[in-house]
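Sample intake sheet
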Amino acid sequence: MAKTKSKQLANILTFTTASIDVVSGSFVPDAADTYNIGSSTIPWLSGSFRHMDINGDVRVQQYIRHRGDLDTFINFTENRIRLNAGDIGFMSLEKDSSAPYPLTVNHGGNRINFRVVDRNTDLLLKTDSEAFNVKLYHAGNEKLQTRSTGVEITGSIVLQEQTTTPTAQEGGLLYSGSNFYLGFD
């Protein structure tokens, strides 16, 4: 294999071997910010790099794939990024026609449960795709759960003090005009 060390090379360089041994240094792009280190007989993708330090942009056509696991990838399309693992669409970020722009979890409608944890790794929010519900937590303890019939609350509800004087009261229900307040003494 030919090795090149500390040499200024011409604008066009042809390697006739099947691999290039880069010991140190960097590849310098041409005026169009592209690299041509392959040909029809020595394709660029046939080699590999164990370590790369990149000082600038990395540009890909569309996909970044996990070696040996081609159905795990990041897919870049026009104004959209999709994250897939095992060919399941887990997340999609898209700048569509107008704000607000969606970040979608489970854009493929799969059996995916979404979880958010706090700094102590205790649950804050969890979805259950099988039960079609969302649960809210405080320090890992469930406090609210959606149901097909409404919302189930575990524990207590804290209501802030009303800011207007009610015009009528019936038990714990206070109202003033079209505003209703739930209050207890």
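Comment: Residues 111 and 130 are 7 Å apart (CA to CA). The mean pLDDT is 74.
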